[in-house]
Design a protein that fits this description.
With 475 residues, this protein is α/β, with parallel strands linked by helices. Helix content is 32%, strand content 11%. The protein has helices spanning 37-41, 63-67, 120-130, 148-156, 184-188, 205-213, 219-227, 232-235, 237-244, 249-276, 295-311, 340-344, 350-365, 367-375, 433-443, and strands spanning 14-17, 20-23, 48-53, 98-102, 165-168, 192-194, 197-198, 317-321, 378-379, 382-383, 388-393, 409-412, 423-426. The chain has a 7-stranded mixed sheet with strand order 5-8-3-11-12-4-13, sandwiched between helices. A two-stranded antiparallel sheet has the order 1-2. A two-stranded antiparallel sheet has the order 6-7. A hairpin with a 2-residue loop joins strand 9 (378-379) and strand 10 (382-383). The longest helix has 28 residues, at 249-276.
């Protein structure tokens, strides 16, 4: 690294040490002399994209749950309110960044032939970001479609160290064939680089950390560093000190905060590994030692790592699978001890639907942690949340029926001004979710896209479009 005091600092500057290669966040020193933030700090030439899948649908997609507004608010436009039991209630403080898209369908996840009946769980994950129907096979001839995250990565991720980053929370190492004659790739893979090329997701925070900060050196160097008690930051301390002397006061504070953040994340990962290797009984004994038993701890670590990856422009595209279809995991802090899969089969009994909704609300509520961090992290002249499009949803709707009509979808962030926020848009009956994805992709840098998956048009994502106007009651 060559640093000249007073000179423009490259956005691609790396701090290197044995087994470590650390990218930097956006700093004032990266603005060329004589240019304002509005000119060079602006990144409207690309929008970051984060896609988050929820498995097994939501309680608000059932007929009773929809009538109770457990997911979709009663009003459309800007006048919507969340009922007390709304699954979206934990995200209310981010209302101005929220575009709720209700009543869209993912019919590509439905059975198209008699022999496909029953395989909804085995199709759903692959359908969410492709909106395409998977070929039923357990052989190597898997085929579905290119996922929207990968279309974005192909255009905007080639300048970054990681064109895309694929993450998950639960174990997905099933291997071989899954049920109903479907290859397990459909069940485990959100991201598809081509119709026959699924991208594996990373579950362990340590592996993600090494992916972000261990590039450029040998595996032996990284292993040697981990065997010491020193933080990865210690291995680049000389470079940090050297760079710091060239920066202005504001950049010095920003650099210190960034370095401390990395050190804290590494410390938390080390604590998880030490606790799980201690011999004490684990809540998830089959999970790798680097995976926290706590759902909240795991989610927060993965969100913090995503934040670093976006902040440093190591990647601009992330997919994150937060659950696994047919998972029997329980979430006692949600208010029920039922498993998420068991609760999804609520039999249309209101009391049981509410148990499923409690789990839905608890799980989605973890996203508030990420949104707060994104809103508080500046990237030039605006926050990361202002410059990112976050897609949250599921191709499963009512898990009790295993159907894919009225599937949940929320868009968050401002996407460099492409998303207005503060909106509830309810689609007409029969609208494919893919229509909303076509509109989103057009807005974030794919103006030529006219179709995607099973789309049959475009669903507008702004007030005054095809959806109801302010203050109207959702049908």
């Amino acid at each position: 690294m060559n640093i000249i005091t007073g000179a423009h600092l490259s956005r691609r500057t790396l701090l290197r040490g044995a087994g470590a290669s650390v990218a930097l966040p956006f700093l004032d020193a990266m603005v060329p002399a004589g240019r304002a933030w509005a000119d060079s700090g602006k990144t409207a030439d690309f929008t970051r994209l984060v896609c988050i899948e929820e498995s097994m649908g939501v309680a608000g997609s059932s007929d009773w749950g929809d009538a109770q507004h457990l997911f979709a608010p009663a009003l459309t436009g800007r006048g919507f309110e969340f009922v007390a039991d709304s699954q979206l209630k934990p995200l209310e403080r981010f209302r101005e960044y929220m575009t709720i898209v209700s009543n869209t369908d993912c019919r590509s996840a439905e059975a198209h032939r008699a022999e496909e009946i029953g395989g909804d769980h085995d199709r759903t994950t692959a359908v969410f970001l492709t909106q395409a129907h998977p070929r039923q096979t357990q052989g190597s001839d898997i085929f579905i479609g290119v996922s929207m995250d990968q279309l974005h990565a192909q255009r905007y991720g080639q300048e970054t160290a990681l064109p895309s980053l694929e993450l998950c929370i639960e174990g997905i190492d099933r291997g071989g064939g899954c049920a109903y004659n479907y290859h397990c790739a459909y069940t485990t893979s959100l991201a598809w680089a081509s119709p026959s090329h699924p991208l594996p997701a990373i579950r362990e925070p340590r592996v993600v950390f090494e992916r972000l900060f261990g590039a450029g050196d040998s595996a032996a160097d990284r292993a040697a560093r981990r065997r010491t008690d020193r933080s990865m930051i210690d291995w680049i301390a000389t470079e940090v000190t050297r760079l710091r002397k060239t920066l202005g006061a504001a950049d010095q504070v920003a650099l210190d905060e960034y370095v401390d953040h990395i050190r804290e994340i590494e410390r938390r990962i080390q604590l998880v590994e030490a606790r799980n290797d201690s011999g004490e009984e684990r809540a998830m004994p089959d999970a790798p030692s680097g995976v926290p038993d706590s759902f909240v701890e795991h989610m927060q670590l993965m969100f913090d790592l995503q934040l670093l990856a976006l902040q440093t422009d190591l990647t601009r595209v992330i997919s994150f699978k937060t659950g696994f279809d047919q998972s029997n995991r329980t979430f006692p802090d949600s208010g029920t001890t039922k498993s998420v899969h068991g609760a999804s089969h609520h039999g249309n009994v209101p009391e049981d639907i509410m148990d499923f909704n409690r789990i839905n609300t608890y799980r989605l509520g973890q996203l508030a942690y990420f949104l707060e961090k994104m809103r508080g992290t500046m990237d030039g002249d605006a926050s990361l949340l202002d410059k990112t499009a976050i897609v949250w949803g599921s191709a499963m709707a009512d898990g009790n029926l295993h159907n894919h009509r009225r599937a949940p979808l929320v868009l968050l962030g401002r996407a460099n001004g492409a998303l207005e926020g503060g909106l509830h848009l309810r689609a007409p009956e029969g609208t494919p979710m893919a229509n909303a994805f076509v509109s989103l992709m057009q807005k974030i840098g794919h103006p030529e896209m006219t179709s995607f998956g099973d789309s049959d048009g475009v669903f507008p994502l702004e007030a005054g479009g095809a959806a109801a106007t302010d203050g109207s009651v959702a049908a």
